[in-house]
Every structure is written in structure tokens, then in C-alpha cells.
Amino acid sequence: MSQGILFLISAPSGAGKTSLVNALLDAAANNLATRLCVSISHTTRPKRPGEENGKNYHFVSVAQFEQMQKEQAFLESAEVFGNHYGTSRKWVEDQLAQEQDVILEIDWQGASQVQALLPESVSIFILPPSLDALRERLTSRAQDDADVIEKRMSEAKNEISHYAQADYIIINEDFDTALADLNAVIRSAGLSKKHQASSNAELLKNLVS
Length: 209
Prior knowledge:
The protein has 209 residues and is of the alpha/beta class. It has helices at 17-29, 62-70, 89-97, 108-117, 131-140, 146-160, 175-190, 193-199, 201-208; strands at 6-10, 36-38, 42-43, 58-59, 74-80, 83-88, 101-105, 122-127, 168-171. Helix 1 crosses helix 7 (175-190) and helix 5 runs antiparallel to helix 6.
């Protein structure tokens, strides 16, 4: 049975992952032939200004999150900067079963957890052109104070050290180029022999019979 493709997109904070994913989804929304969506994580992190429950995240209490963990409701879960994040197993599996391609915006630890369960997933790592550029982006966002930025920079170095676990690496120096690269990865994954053999099994059978 044909299934959608699960894409795991990781990046250090400030590398532009969310902006790239949003731009990719905007382009997909204008292409009726594209079946692409992003998983909305559950988190215990407080809402930031402008964020909406069910759109940016499913905001839950620590008690609710822990109950979901006990029920094994998460495909993966992690603690980042003192907050918990988790991906709904049922939602992702349902989307893939409906031949919907799914993007998970996820850290390297979560990506490792998912790949262990779903080795067919495609992992993508987005990197900044330099640590100086990353620091500048974090500062220009004006979302965090200096201490938090330093903590994020320290965590970024750890995150970046795991880039080798990814199937694809994209350097986000120029946004438009990085977006084109990301789109190319999505397209190429859909054209792989394994995926085509699954999604176009009848056609291929007829062509060689």
C-alpha cells in the first residue's frame, strides 16, 4: 500500500528552519498536486505573542504531557530548555496512510528516535553559514535576552555536531537558494525508486508485463 513520506527537518535555533518550512508550505498550498503538511507538536512551553493553540503548537500542561507519555501517544518526545515537546504518533501515522507527505520540525534527538521507529523517513539538516551569522540572527529576532541567546548558542554547537546523522544538508546563507534546495530534496524523495514502486505499482507492472 502506498504511503506518504515522512521528512525530519532539524536545525539549530536561528538557522531559519521554520521560515523555510513555512515558505515551502505556502508554495505547496498553490500546487494542488502537492500533498504536504507539517506536524504540530505538543509542548509544555508557554505561548509566545502571536502564537495560536493548534496552529503553532498544541499547548498542554506538564500533567497532560506526562499522561500522554504514559499512554505512548508520542512518536518522539524531548526536553528542550526546560520545556517538553512531543509528536503525536497517531496523527503522523494517519497522514502517511492517506498518502500525505509529513514534515516534522524536530531536534537531532527526536529525529534519531523517529528514524529508529520509521527508518524510511528522510532526514534534512539546515545549517547557518557561520556561527557569527547564527548569533546575529538570534539577536535580531529580539525574542530573548543575552543570557538566553548565549544558552541557545551553546546548544546550537551541540545540535550542529550531529549534522552527520542527516540524509541531506542545506546551508541557509541565501534564503531563496536554501528554499530551492529544500524543495529539491522533497521532490527527489518522491521520485526515488522505492517510493515510485509503491505509489505507481500498477503502472510499473503494466509497463514491464
